[in-house]
Amino acid sequence: LLNKPIIIDKTPVFIGTSIGVLFSDERYKSADVMLRDADTAMYQAKEKGKGRYEVFDTSMQLKVQNALALEADIRQAIDLAEFNPHFQPIVRLSDNKVVGFEALARWQSHKRGFVYPNDFIPIAEETGLVKSIDLQVLEKSCVALKEWEKSHQCEEIYISCNLYCEHFFRPNLPEEILEIIQRVGIKPAQLRVELTERALLDNKDVVLENMNALKAIGVKILLDDFGTGYSSLSYLHRFPIDVLKIDKSFISNIHDQDKHKAIIKTIIDLARNLNMATVGEGIEHSADADLLNEMDCDYGQGYYFAKPMSLQDVNSQQLIGKIL
């Protein structure tokens, strides 16, 4: 019945629905609690693709309670500055020299111990808390960069930080980043920010303004996971992108799929013609690195070179400017 159109002013209007079903039980003492659980089942139906129904069971409520508890712990962890960067080297493929690091958010909770990113990032994105996490990790990464500059007399090493797409929908993003850069005392050219194509799909005008403002400051911009989304060529000439990061899904099958080789070569040639650099992600074998180098890919990162590591591990392995 709900699939049938509703006629409004002689125009058919179609609607969709997600239904949560709850069966009465002796444990229910009030209508409010019953509605709460039916509502929980409805949202479960939405999560599973909409246009369907789900029958409530107690595991759903437990899932909701766990999510609420995790959200509360994330909020507290932000206040306690528990989120720290782990650094994965970015290597120049022509000589295997470490030229920079991608900073990845890691959470060592005083309550939960180490929490894997896949366990906290989805909740952080859903609640908008990821923006605070990103800025906390970015600032700590800048501090680490400043320490390396003092201890190793190097000014060419850079840090590349991931920013959730909604950062770019806020007009004050460049001011926030500039304030961190000035407070820590690094050069803007030592900081790079990574965004995904998702940020380029919505609010294009404010995103473009933010990207241009960051470029004016001196911060370089990387387009992450290139090749997995729409990968519209219009992005590349409209938005001021400095570096394309070729998604690891192409790299992991580079020797088995001729199409992947062709796509990677096309991306590299396109980037070079547009004066953009390229980074191959997810390199796990020397043969992958060698082939990308032969294709004129500029940089690479992945487990073949090093896994993401703590600041202490970077320092102990003396990776700054090192030839791997």
Radius of gyration: 23 Å
**Total strand segments:** 13
Roughly what is the average pLDDT, rounded to an integer? 91
Main β-sheet, in a few words? 8 strands, mixed, barrel
Spell out the helices and strands N to C: EEEHEHEEEHHEHEHHEHEHHEHEH
Structural class based on helices, strands and sheet pairing: alpha/beta
Overall geometry comes to globular
Measured as a percent range, the helix fraction is 40-55%
- Proportion in β-strands: 15-25%
Cα distance, first to last residue?
A: 65 Å
Low-pLDDT segments: none
Oligomer: single chain
Separate helix tally: 12
Strand line-up in the sheet with most strands: 5-6-8-9-10-11-12-13
Describe what you observe in this structure.
The chain is α/β, with parallel strands linked by helices. It has 12 helices and 13 strands. It has helices at residues 31-47, 58-79, 117-127, 130-152, 173-184, 198-201, 204-217, 233-238, 248-251, 258-273, 286-294, 311-316; strands spanning 6-8, 11-13, 19-21, 53-55, 83-92, 97-109, 113-115, 158-162, 191-195, 220-226, 243-246, 277-280, 299-300. It has an 8-stranded mixed β-barrel, surrounded by 5 helices. Helix 11 links the parallel strand 12 (277-280) and strand 13 (299-300). Helix 2 crosses helix 3, helix 4 packs parallel to helix 5 and helix 5 (173-184) packs parallel to helix 7. The model has no long low-confidence stretch (mean pLDDT 91).
List the helices and strands and how they pair.
Blueprint: E1 6-8, E2 11-13, E3 19-21, H1 31-47, E4 53-55, H2 58-79, E5 83-92, E6 97-109, E7 113-115, H3 117-127, H4 130-152, E8 158-162, H5 173-184, E9 191-195, H6 198-201, H7 204-217, E10 220-226, H8 233-238, E11 243-246, H9 248-251, H10 258-273, E12 277-280, H11 286-294, E13 299-300, H12 311-316
Parallel strand pairs: 3-4, 6-8, 8-9, 9-10, 10-11, 11-12, 12-13
Antiparallel strand pairs: 1-2, 5-6, 5-13, 6-7
Helix pairs in contact: 2-3, 4-5, 5-7
